[in-house]
Write a structure and sequence with these properties.
By secondary structure, the protein is an alpha/beta fold. It is built from 8 helices and 5 strands, in the order αααααβααβββαβ. The longest helix has 12 residues. It is globular and about 55 Å long. Bound molecules: FE2/S2 (inorganic) cluster. FE2/S2 (inorganic) cluster (FES) binds next to α6.
Length: 202
């Protein structure tokens, strides 16, 4: 996405709510007084949660002032980690893993579905403003590839029809049941156990 698009529609001001001010104290207390900059990721995360899951420049500047850090250092952190969204995301934020194991198992088909139903480009809101999507690197569920994360939940063992049903539900403002599309529990083998058969609870 172009820099112009990322930084348009920025709010002028940001400040922590009273509830989050209390949480910042807890976070800063975890570090020695002269090392309060160590709380930067936690504070950016609080700011993002307070602002509908994205971080405007005003919030990055606010956190820099709050922690007495140079703005550029906080900006570097916010732009380095993909967990921070620098432009508005939908109520339902779809993150599709496109690292090798998921790609081999069909991640491209999943991104095509996102393009078709949500928006042609990543990090853009759907027409009804409920959804947005992006590609991400490995989310640590490779055994159940291909997969995507929606808000805080994982959807695994996806195929075209299952993914279409999930995305269409989101666009109707309904949150589908997370987990494996094949009803696997965690990383259980698809055809049942084949090893450690004699060990209880293995
Ligand atoms: S490669 Fe997709 S979850 Fe690891």
């Amino acid at each position: 996405m172009s820099i112009k698009k990322i930084y348009k529609n920025q709010p002028e001001l940001f400040q922590f709510s009273n509830e989050n001010l209390k949480k910042t104290e807890e976070e800063i207390k975890k570090y020695p007084k002269e090392r309060k900059a160590s709380a930067v990721i936690a504070l950016l995360y609080l700011a993002q949660n307070q602002n509908n899951n994205w971080l405007p420049l005003a919030a990055i500047k606010y956190v820099a002032t709050f922690l007495e850090m140079p703005y550029i250092k906080v900006y570097e952190v916010a732009t380095f980690y993909s967990m921070f969204n620098l432009s508005p995301v939908g109520k339902y934020f779809v993150q599709v893993c496109t690292t090798t194991p998921c790609m081999i198992r069909g991640a491209k088909k999943i991104t095509d579905i996102c393009k078709k139903y949500i928006s042609q480009n990543q990090k853009e809101l759907s027409e009804n403003k409920l959804c947005s999507w992006t590609e991400v690197e490995c989310l640590g569920a490779c055994v159940n590839a291909p997969m995507m994360q929606i808000n805080q939940d994982y959807f695994e063992d996806l195929n075209i029809s299952k993914t279409e049903i999930i995305i269409q539900s989101l666009l109707k403002d309904e949150f589908p049941k997370p987990g494996s599309a094949k009803n696997r529990k965690s990383n259980a083998p698809e055809k049942g156990k084949t090893t450690l058969m004699d060990i209880k609870n293995a």
